[in-house]
Amino acid sequence: MLKSDFNYTNIVKNYSLDRQDIIHLKKVSILFKENLDSFLEGFYSFIFEFDHAKKFIKDDLTLNRHKDEISKWFLNLFSGEYDDNYFQKLYKISEVHIKIGLPHHYVNAAFSYVRRFLKNILLNKNMSEYINAVDKIIDINLDILTVTYSKGEQVKLIDDIVFIRNCIDNDLIVPFYQPIVDSKTLKISKYESLMRLTNPNTSEFLSIFPYLKTAKRIKIYEKLTKMMLEKVFLYMNGKNCEFSINLDFEDISNEQIIDLILSHIEKFDNPYYIIFEIVESEFIDDFKVVEEFAKSVRSFGCKIAIDDFGSGYSSMENILKLKPEIIKIDGTLIKEIDTSKESEILVKNIVSMAKDMNAFTVAEYIHSKEVFEKIVSLDVDFLQGFYLAEPDKYVR
């Protein structure tokens, strides 16, 4: 961010932070420095009541780094130096908040604790005449953090919306196909179709994943799905190989999407080449919808695959009822399987269960020779990952 983006002088002026306030803040700096440990103890006790804090401060190393930064910020409140350099540091804090997805209300809640702590200290010391200056610097900090936070978030949202709409309007939705190989012959057995968005400025192909939330938020996700389905069915018809299409609960509970899928299946030369991948977590929404969809497409000879199996959300009872033809093992279990005994045991159990269900297994996220060799030794049926083949616009 350029310094011209915000007029910090005006912000300070708006809160009437004058010379006397700055003198007061500098006078209480020693007092609050003496209470730093007490502040940190109370602050982290407070923020750890929120689940989001537990997610991004998940180990001692991260906690200690966070404490260092919070300590610096806390002591700087009373530095008496409130210039562009001071506010640029605040902006950097805001950038971190945006990157980790920290919602506005967490920032506001944290500031409410800081304000209460400072006021209580001053009141206990009979120094109420300093409260006004403290309120001003807290308000200024909160203003800068939440305004820059909102601006950064809004700019990104607007950019993403413009980009997605441009991709739709200019037909920049491109299916990519990632090979899935037989673990015994190492020959390509099938492909997974993946949506890519074309950046018109760089001609780079981008994954849809970072834009999914925005696409759903502005109600154009259905349009993206329909364009993807049209292109995949058109391209794959006549190809002599199996291929999969990813669907989520929003897709299979949408009558228009289902009608489009069924109309394409009816016109498809070999429907038994079609596999529909449903993410394991989708089973928790409404199994009847999943069951009805599976029944409809299987009547044409299509297959069902459970994607990201092992992510821990599904009901095994429902999966046993569905009887999927393919189980795709979650990448989090695969990526460190060469070093994780726990992952190895879980994958062994999934392979054993799949065999009992007469289902084939696919290991995703094969990213190294070591992972490849370990997975092959565990008798997984099919393999997928960048170590073997990256997604491409064309089926070989």
User: Widest sheet: strand order?
Assistant: 1-2-4-5-6-7-8-9
Q: What general form does the structure show?
A: elongated
Mind summarizing the main beta sheet? 8 strands, mixed, barrel
Average residue-wise pLDDT:
89
Helical segment count: 18
Number of strands: 9
- Strand-and-helix sequence, N→C? HHHHHHHHHEEEHHEHHEHEHEHHEHE
The proportion of strand residues reads 5-15%
Q: In which range does the helix fraction lie?
A: 55-70%
User: Radius of gyration, rounded?
Assistant: 28 Å
Comma- or semicolon-separated keywords:
alpha/beta; 18 helices; 396 residues; 8-stranded mixed barrel; disordered N terminus
Outline the structure in words.
With 396 residues, this protein is α/β, with parallel strands linked by helices. Helix content is 56%, strand content 13%. Helix 2 packs across helix 9 (131-169), helix 4 (36-47) runs antiparallel to helix 8 and helix 8 runs antiparallel to helix 9. The protein is elongated, with a radius of gyration of 28 Å. The two termini are 46 Å apart.
